[in-house]
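Supplementary material to the annual report.
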Amino acid sequence: MTTPLVAMENVTVRFKGAQTVHAVNGVSLTLEPGKVLGILGESGSGKSVTLKTLLRLLPESRTEIGGKVMVDGKDVLALGPQELSDYRGAVTSMIFQDPALALDPVYTVGEQIAEAIVRHEKLSAKQAMARALELLELVRIPSPERRLKAYPHEMSGGMRQRAMIALALAARPKLLLADEPTTALDATVQIQILLLLRQLQRDLGMGVIFVTHDIGVAVEVSDRLAVMYAGQIVETGTVRELLRDPRHPYTRGLLAANLHGAKKGERLEAIPGAPPPLNEAPSSCSFAPRCKQAQDICRANLPPAVALGEGRLVRCVQAEAALQPA
Amino acid sequence: MLTYLAKRILYVLPVALGVSLFCFLLVHIAPGDPLTSVLPPDASQQMQEEIRKLYGFDRPLPVQFGLWLWKAVQGDLGTSIATGRPVAAEVWRAVGNTLLIACLATVIGFVLGCFFGFVAGYFRGSFLDKFASMLAVLGVSVPHYWLGMVLVIVFSVQLGWLPPGGAGPGGSASWKWDWEHVSHMILPAITMSVIPMGIISRTVRALVADILNQEFVPALRAKGLMDFGVFRHVVKNAAPTALAVMGLQLGYLLGGSILIETVFSWPGTGFLLGNAIFQRDLPLLQGTILVLAMFFVGLNVLVDIVQGLLDPRVRRR
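Predicted assembly:
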């Protein structure tokens, strides 16, 4: 087995404030180089926070991070300020959800990409601009010479996201984090961006962690999936394993809450209730209050993480029971 | 950018016309006869009529306005009733004097205001923020004539470092860039800078706080920029608004502060306006207001242009 590109071990993230929020509660995950991991979860499940932890982008003064985060052999949580900024962009970079907000409005796209290149590589401003142009060609922006001098507000949403991807690739990162990169886009543009990301990932051999709340999207781009609920990964496995044989009741609920094959007039399947408040660290199964199969033991203790095979974990007491599809 | 420029400059015409009409009417609406101050109380009816004719006050208002505007465009603002000297010369001299301290005050206010604003915005909620915000509130709320007097008491009377007032040994007529003259600018300029300092500091604080909350800041960090790299982006984002506020403040200061210029007997526009009002010197009053209003309009255009240069989004509007 190769050394993993990413190894998170029992990571916890707490936000301090008037009320402590336990956003991430013991997440462990690994990613092999050149693979794509999809993290699937609803709003507030801690998936974006997990992603930001990998770049240490959370506000330091209000955040407590526990556990261990290794990326490309570096202990991310132990990096000093200079090392951290050398690491950001060059080893790991990120595509943000809304490119309209994540690009600086008063600098041209070319300037912003070149800035990232100059930061990490010893290139002149002119060479960096030339490479920025190559990057825009790489992400297949139409008439890239013109776009280089364009400001973000002069581009369409899809083009902005392509520019954002070019920016993220500027310093040839080994790990690309994508935080719902298609959520802010039109449906037709979403597909194009997904296909582009998938192809770039294959061509450049990057590891990618892709966060989304859209199962369809997650299945499209990922090799493996991790389902998050209330700051924990409740189930991991390959895409095929999760689709064919979901073991956690939450995963099964997510798969059932799908519009495909629904008939008109038929009531849509949904998971009843709402996610739990996260102002306390969980001491029992977080999903128990919404789970149809919940037993007394679920409400008393934390469920065990049951290993069902290589890289297949389910955090449920009933994981091993041969559950029939609901 | 060129269309933007042309548009901004074209907009000036109707504004300038409106302003001149407004300041002409304003002065005429005010009660009281301007001639009472120049004529002896026992002047005969005939003499009154003659003087009235001489100044053109006997004609209908629209005609008066037309004539006045026509002359004003050519640079002739009439003659002062009180002194008999050409208004244009008086106004330009006063504007020159006020420009000196107003520019200095704006520079001081802008530099300090930006400094306090950035510190407060970057360290929101900290002790530094509270201290800087307190200075800003103090700046806008302290009565500046009082501050002027306190400064005079401390630095002129007690310490004897700076002159208490006036525009130099030979008055403003013999202005030179030597310490003798510059030292006279310092106290009025500092007193004048306090309000722009407070306003710019508040504005910049809010701007910086807002910019730092935007998502592109973590995105900048995500590509590996350190604090200084991010700071560069914050500055360029804050600059257009900060400069606009600075331009407006300079405009206000050009009007001269009657109170500050009186405290320091600085022969500027505020001083001139005050005199013109008390003596009911209509041509002087009109001329001063018109010149100041034109400065204000011109300054706003300048600010718009600079803003357009700095912020690409402004150009599109």
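The radius of gyration of chain A is 21 Å.
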